[in-house]
Amino acid sequence: MRGRFPVSRPRRNRLSPAVRSLLAETALEPRHLVLPFFTVPGSGVKREIPSLPGLFHWSVDRLPELVEPALEAGVRAFLLFGLPSRKDERGSSADDPDQPVQRALGFLRGRYPQALLASDVCLCEYTSHGHCGCLAGQEVDNDATLERLASVALSHARAGAHVVAPSDMMDGRVGAIRYALDGAGFSSVGIWSYAAKFASAFYGPFRDAAGSAPEFGDRRGYQLPVSNPREALRDALMDEDEGADLLLVKPAGTSLDIAARLRGRTELPLGGYVVSGEYMMLRCAAGAGALDERRAVLEYHLAVRRAGCDVVVTYLAAEIARWLREEA
Ligand SMILES: [Zn+2]
User: Per UniProt, where does Zn(2+) bind (predicted)?
Assistant: First the structure.
């Protein structure tokens, strides 16, 4: 019956796997992954985090047990969070060079020159009230907080951070940090800004892990309402104007639309942060036998890349990198 269909029809699903893999539009590779972790005071500490089974609090001396296997699997970038030995109203331990983040930065920078070290800059892990800034009464004082954040960023740069990642969402923080870094000779230290950080229920397990749940009120005054994508885009583009080098969206899985829209509005690299609640969602569903863990995790993170994120910050970075290596 040749000639019966003179017009060739579009072909779907007939490409060989080899051709498909040649033409894959999006890839997830170990180099795209950033591994966040929590470092704590003391020595000899590797303690499982009750709200995040499978993840640990690490004292600085034991970090090689976390970092070396990750590097071996191909993860190059790390994002440091710290639990301080003391807290007060102003979060004064946040820029103390003897606290875990600063000590870890110095230790890792000297021992693993190939690692890219990014550090979280915020006050909520360091303040007695658990808010991300300094308070005036019951309210966060934006401008007083900027000065503190710039000082924290500077202390991280001095300790060895390649990149600082302000997560507080105060107005003007990127500009204030850029100004402080440049003024102190750290113009090569980058800023990854949490440009679109929604007030999300998915941060719950992290707050227990970081001991950073607010003592009163919540963070809706300075985090974005989930309902407002245009506000998120405006905020993110302001961070670009202030000098951010990369824009982060979080939680990644509930912000894919924001990443995709930002991709069309900026030439900066983008990052998606798969947060603690998303980690638990994947783990618990796999643990209950509802999902094939490896396939579900890889698909979830590939979707973040597909939405336009250059990097994916994820607690599963090392596992993912190992799986990708096995499949390569
Ligand atoms: Zn915070």
Answer: 122, 124, 132
Tokens of 44: 């000899």
No. of H helices and E strands in the chain? 11, 12
Q: Which residues are bridge partners to 49 per DSSP?
A: 52
pLDDT in tens, 81-98: 999 999 999 999 999 999
What stretches in the chain show pLDDT beneath 70? Answer: 1-6, 8-13, 220-221
CATH number at residue 239: 3.20.20.70
Whether 220 maps to a domain, the answer reads: yes
Q: By residue range, what is the domain housing residue 131?
A: 28-327
Q: Kindly report, residue by residue over 177-234, the tens digit of the pLDDT.
A: 999 999 999 999 999 998 888 989 999 888 877 777 777 777 766 788 999 999 999 9
Surrounding residues of ion ligand 1, Cβ less than 5 A: 122, 124, 132
Return d(Cα 157, Cα 178) in angstroms, integer: 11
CA 156 to centroid of ligand 1, rounded, Å:
16
Task: Kindly state whether residue 14 falls inside one of the protein's structural domains.
Answer: no
Residues in the chain: 328
Tell me whether residue 124 is annotated as binding. Answer: yes
CA of 223 to the centre of ligand 1 (A): 10
CA of 36 to the centre of ligand 1 (A): 15
Please report where in the chains the tokens 């890792």 appear, as a residue: 108
62 Cα to the center of ligand 1, angstroms = 25
Count of domains observed in the chain = 1
Q: What is the pLDDT of residue 5?
A: 67
Q: For residue 197, report the distance from its CA to the centre of ligand 1, in Å.
A: 11
For the chain, give the mean pLDDT.
93
* Residues 52-67 as b or e (16 or more Cβ within 10 Å = b): beebbbbbbebbeebb
134 annotated ligand-binding residue: no
Is residue 4 included in any domain, yes or no? Answer: no
284 is in an annotated binding site: no
- Residues with catalytic roles: 197, 250
Residue 122 counted as an annotated binding residue = yes
